[in-house]
Design a protein that fits this description.
This protein is α/β, with parallel strands linked by helices. It folds into two domains: about 200 residues, Spore Coat Polysaccharide Biosynthesis Protein SpsA, Chain A, CATH 3.90.550; about 90 residues, no CATH class. The protein is built from eleven helices and nine strands. Strands 1, 2, 3, 4, 5, 6, 7, 8 and 9 form a nine-stranded mixed sheet that branches.
Length: about 300
């Protein structure tokens, strides 16, 4: 088996419409029609309705039941169970563009061991562009290069290397930033593949922003080697610093992706004025992290 595509159901549990999930599966099925790949579904829901639909309409898909297993850990278990030499991650709220897997595999087969594709939100208006910059801006500029973070909803790895350097367990939903930094310290860069594009269903703004704010702090607890971890010595008073740095990157990334996002001048100005407002929700998640403390279990979204 050349490659394995791993899709989770955590997003279904968190509110992703079922039709998006099934559309993602159908897209993945069209990909493995070349006979070189397999699909693994991480089923954390164990709902009879989903089980029945999968068995009837998607009989060629391997289903891996994993009750009460977190997002990162479930993906690592699935990678261990995979038969492919390469592992490609695609979330249940993401629809891949034609040729998505070829672009990731081309990168991996060129001698690189980790890569990340480009994810944008389904909403085509200004709100979607704002959220794309805030959540996926870590991938900019949109040219092949080594990234400091990535999104685990759209990534590929040489399976052997991933199992040797798995995503670390942490007190957050997804620790892809910490994983990218861990890989870099082990001289395993994550390469950005801009042509490997997926469209992400638009999440709940409040839930997503507070979760991501929480994860900013939790990532530092999970990995004291991160540059930002030193700021935790300030305790809750570090929140304005984290908040300001996030806005700085928002501004920088808006200019980096202005042409690609087809932003008019007035749209760019409006986005720059809205970032501080949206990042206040992230700050709430940061405060929530400090109130909860670095304990295992759960995450910081509302």
């Amino acid at each position: 088996m050349d490659y394995s595509i791993i899709i989770e159901t955590h997003n279904l549990e968190e509110g992703t419409p079922a039709d998006i999930f099934y559309a993602s599966l159908k897209s993945a099925l069209s990909i493995i029609s070349d006979g070189q790949g397999e699909i693994i579904i991480i089923d954390v829901l164990q709902m009879d309705e989903i089980k029945q639909k999968l068995s009837q309409e998607f009989p060629f898909i391997r289903v891996l039941p994993l009750n009460d297993t977190g997002y990162d850990r479930a993906k690592m278990i699935a990678a261990k169970e995979a038969k492919g030499n390469y592992v490609l991650f695609l979330d249940s709220d993401c629809i891949p563009s034609p040729g998505w897997h070829y672009h990731l595999l081309e990168c991996l087969k060129s001698g690189k061991t980790a890569c990340a594709g480009y994810t944008t939100y389904q909403e085509e208006g200004l709100l979607g562009k704002i959220m794309t910059v805030m959540d996926m801006g870590c991938l900019f500029p949109l040219v092949p290069h080594i990234v400091r973070s990535y999104a685990l909803n759209n990534a590929g790895f040489v399976r052997k290397v991933l199992l040797e350097h798995p995503v670390p367990d942490s007190d957050m939903r997804c620790n892809s930033y910490g994983h990218a930094q861990l890989l870099l310290r082990n001289h395993i860069p994550v390469w950005f593949v801009p042509d490997a594009h997926v469209v992400h269903d638009m999440p709940s703004i409040i839930k997503e922003r507070t979760r991501r704010g929480y994860d900013v702090i939790a990532a530092c607890w999970a990995d004291p080697n991160l540059f930002e971890a030193r700021w935790l010595s300030l305790g809750i008073f570090s929140v304005p610093l984290f908040y300001s740095v996030e806005i700085f990157y928002d501004v920088k990334r808006t200019f980096q992706a202005r042409n690609h996002l087809r932003l008019d001048f007035w749209q760019a100005i409006l986005m720059l004025s809205l970032f501080p407002l949206f990042r206040l929700l992230d700050a709430i998640g940061m405060f929530r992290a400090f109130m909860k403390g670095p304990s295992k279990g759960g995450w910081g979204g509302f």
